[in-house]
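tool_call: predict_structure(chain=1)
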Amino acid sequence: MTDWYPQGKTSVNSSFNIPGKYAWAIMETPGFVALLYCMLTIPAQQGLEELPGANWLMAILFTIHYLYRALISPLVLNPSMSPIHPFILASAFIFQVINGTCVGGYLAGYGPSTAADWSGSMIRIEIGLMLFFAGFMGNIFHDDDLRQIRRAAAKNQKRKAEVQGERAKAGGVDKVYMIPENGLFRVVLYPHYFCEWIEWIGFWVIGGWACVPARIFVLNEITTMLPRV
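tool_result:
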């Protein structure tokens, strides 16, 4: 385990730290923006009048995930987030640009570009969709368990401040870390990470073995998150 990981519960006090909610949105948004840019520009460059529906299906799934992960979760749902060091923000930002471009480029014309390329893929697509949405819903469920802890902590700290005649702390709550007892938290420490693996495995299944960007994305997710699961 590294003794320095400038994010979350191991974030360091630094004058360079960026508020967690905004840092997270900034570093996660480029992925789906890059993908959508590719989907809207590359087909014309490749002389394609239209893309197969399955290409757009995968692009929509990618976008749905990141609308939740990059914008809705941090900016709307999360009561608080720990500050993030610029090093982490920059690293994630670069990864998202590269990943979004690779996946987007594949789906926008450099991968399957006709309906015939998807011939015989219906069963695979259906299995992939089931995996993707099972993982997506599991991700949201376990994320919300963690949010409930933060909401309870915020209420307790507000109540304590009122009793002491102080103003509640603006901009979030003091760090409170507990392990929930619901769902897969009984089995692993970070089930939301595990569920995200299931999501992207399903995404890869939809694209098939030949979808190299999706395969690499799954491997990157697992190797990055596994030490913390």
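agent: The chain has six helices and no strands. Proceeding to next step.
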